[in-house]
Amino acid sequence: MTSKGVSHHDKLDRRYMAAALRLSRRNLGLTSTNPSVGTLIVRNDGSGPYIVGRGITASGGRPHAETVALAEAGELARGATAYVTLEPCAHHGRTPPCAEALVTAGIARVVGAASDPDPRVSGKGYAILRAAGLEVTEGVLAEEAACQMAGYMRRSVSKRPEVILKLALSSDGMIGRRGEGQVAITGDIARRQLHMLRAECDAILVGIGTALADNPELTVRLAGLKGRSPARIVLDGQARLPEDSKLVLSSGEVPLYVAVLPGADARRREALERLGIQILATEDYEGRMALPELLEDLAARGMSSVIVEGGAETAKAFIEEGLVDRICLYRGPEEIGEGGIDAPIDETRIPAGFHLVREENYGEDRYMEWVRAV
């Protein structure tokens, strides 16, 4: 043991699991209903450990990370250690479960991070490994892994996507100025970080007020990553989204969903549908759109993570209904002043149940992130 009570073995496990988690981030938002899992196959022939296989859940969700890593390792997997960021699957489809694949490949030890909440897997994957005589270590960087896969976890447990509320606040607590559309609050570094966040999610959601005032495109505007743009969703109860808006004009490249209320003009709905927009029929609850039911419908379409980006009223609605799971605040250095739109939330008004997980500086801007447990 080291002086702090952590063995070299434990430190090595944490080191390789951290690497597996970094690897798994590459396909966040690309793996459909499956989580983006990372797997490393590590061998030690007496001269120190080295990686012989790497795997990440493929785009679309198949093949799984373990299968990819074992294929790369080949015969070198026999007697090696597998580091997996999520408990290996245990249920049979057309291919055997990953737990059995690890056994067949001759893996001697499996180190896992997060447990899988899926009842077809939970505990069963590790049980298969132990029954076959493999050494199993669970829970290495489990909290970090669960946080990274929160969309999958939330969808598995609550049958809805993880909701990420993103707000950019001026130094005086405003998110914009009335009547002026989009107002730049943060700098270039913070904006690039936001686009990275978009690239890792399944959808971006705004209210019709933001869509009308800002005429946004809501895509990923980073070199080489435009293809990672998530689906766009507009809460548009009366189907008012203009046919010449950037959102509609780009719907052939990036999917666009418009959520409407039962009383929406049928002609407007039909006009949007003719342009290739997918209409989400929602329920009316006391004059407002029923958000919990909408989220259930999005989960049924395979969405695990949704960023709520636009509008104080939309943000407030998700907060008041207790539907926000992660809060991402960007705080800029400049004031907006008179005519500003008050932020519905700030770092001094975080709802109960959330805890701070990140604080960073992006140039002159400050970033803070809170999450609540699944």
UniProtKB/TrEMBL annotation:
<feature type="binding site">
    <location>
        <position position="64"/>
    </location>
    <ligand>
        <name>Zn(2+)</name>
    </ligand>
</feature>
<feature type="active site" description="Proton donor">
    <location>
        <position position="66"/>
    </location>
</feature>
<feature type="binding site">
    <location>
        <begin position="311"/>
        <end position="317"/>
    </location>
    <ligand>
        <name>NADP(+)</name>
    </ligand>
</feature>
<keyword id="KW-0521">NADP</keyword>
<feature type="binding site">
    <location>
        <position position="198"/>
    </location>
    <ligand>
        <name>substrate</name>
    </ligand>
</feature>
<dbReference type="InterPro" id="IPR050765">
    <property type="entry name" value="Riboflavin_Biosynth_HTPR"/>
</dbReference>
<feature type="binding site">
    <location>
        <position position="218"/>
    </location>
    <ligand>
        <name>substrate</name>
    </ligand>
</feature>
<dbReference type="InterPro" id="IPR016192">
    <property type="entry name" value="APOBEC/CMP_deaminase_Zn-bd"/>
</dbReference>
<feature type="binding site">
    <location>
        <position position="98"/>
    </location>
    <ligand>
        <name>Zn(2+)</name>
    </ligand>
</feature>
<dbReference type="InterPro" id="IPR024072">
    <property type="entry name" value="DHFR-like_dom_sf"/>
</dbReference>
<dbReference type="GO" id="GO:0008270">
    <property type="term" value="F:zinc ion binding"/>
</dbReference>
<dbReference type="InterPro" id="IPR016193">
    <property type="entry name" value="Cytidine_deaminase-like"/>
</dbReference>
<comment type="similarity">
    <text>In the N-terminal section; belongs to the cytidine and deoxycytidylate deaminase family.</text>
</comment>
<feature type="binding site">
    <location>
        <position position="221"/>
    </location>
    <ligand>
        <name>NADP(+)</name>
    </ligand>
</feature>
<feature type="binding site">
    <location>
        <position position="210"/>
    </location>
    <ligand>
        <name>NADP(+)</name>
    </ligand>
</feature>
<feature type="domain" description="CMP/dCMP-type deaminase">
    <location>
        <begin position="11"/>
        <end position="136"/>
    </location>
</feature>
<feature type="binding site">
    <location>
        <position position="309"/>
    </location>
    <ligand>
        <name>substrate</name>
    </ligand>
</feature>
<protein>
    <recommendedName>
        <fullName>Riboflavin biosynthesis protein RibD</fullName>
        <ecNumber>3.5.4.26</ecNumber>
        <ecNumber>1.1.1.193</ecNumber>
    </recommendedName>
</protein>
<comment type="function">
    <text>Converts 2,5-diamino-6-(ribosylamino)-4(3h)-pyrimidinone 5'-phosphate into 5-amino-6-(ribosylamino)-2,4(1h,3h)-pyrimidinedione 5'-phosphate.</text>
</comment>
<dbReference type="GO" id="GO:0008703">
    <property type="term" value="F:5-amino-6-(5-phosphoribosylamino)uracil reductase activity"/>
</dbReference>
<dbReference type="Pfam" id="PF00383">
    <property type="entry name" value="dCMP_cyt_deam_1"/>
</dbReference>
<keyword id="KW-0686">Riboflavin biosynthesis</keyword>
<comment type="pathway">
    <text>Cofactor biosynthesis; riboflavin biosynthesis; 5-amino-6-(D-ribitylamino)uracil from GTP: step 2/4.</text>
</comment>
<comment type="similarity">
    <text>In the C-terminal section; belongs to the HTP reductase family.</text>
</comment>
<feature type="binding site">
    <location>
        <position position="168"/>
    </location>
    <ligand>
        <name>NADP(+)</name>
    </ligand>
</feature>
<feature type="binding site">
    <location>
        <position position="89"/>
    </location>
    <ligand>
        <name>Zn(2+)</name>
    </ligand>
</feature>
<comment type="pathway">
    <text>Cofactor biosynthesis; riboflavin biosynthesis; 5-amino-6-(D-ribitylamino)uracil from GTP: step 3/4.</text>
</comment>
<dbReference type="GO" id="GO:0009231">
    <property type="term" value="P:riboflavin biosynthetic process"/>
</dbReference>
<dbReference type="GO" id="GO:0008835">
    <property type="term" value="F:diaminohydroxyphosphoribosylaminopyrimidine deaminase activity"/>
</dbReference>
<keyword id="KW-0378">Hydrolase</keyword>
<keyword id="KW-0511">Multifunctional enzyme</keyword>
<keyword id="KW-0862">Zinc</keyword>
<dbReference type="InterPro" id="IPR002734">
    <property type="entry name" value="RibDG_C"/>
</dbReference>
<dbReference type="InterPro" id="IPR002125">
    <property type="entry name" value="CMP_dCMP_dom"/>
</dbReference>
<dbReference type="InterPro" id="IPR004794">
    <property type="entry name" value="Eubact_RibD"/>
</dbReference>
<dbReference type="Pfam" id="PF01872">
    <property type="entry name" value="RibD_C"/>
</dbReference>
<keyword id="KW-0560">Oxidoreductase</keyword>
<keyword id="KW-0479">Metal-binding</keyword>
<feature type="binding site">
    <location>
        <position position="214"/>
    </location>
    <ligand>
        <name>NADP(+)</name>
    </ligand>
</feature>
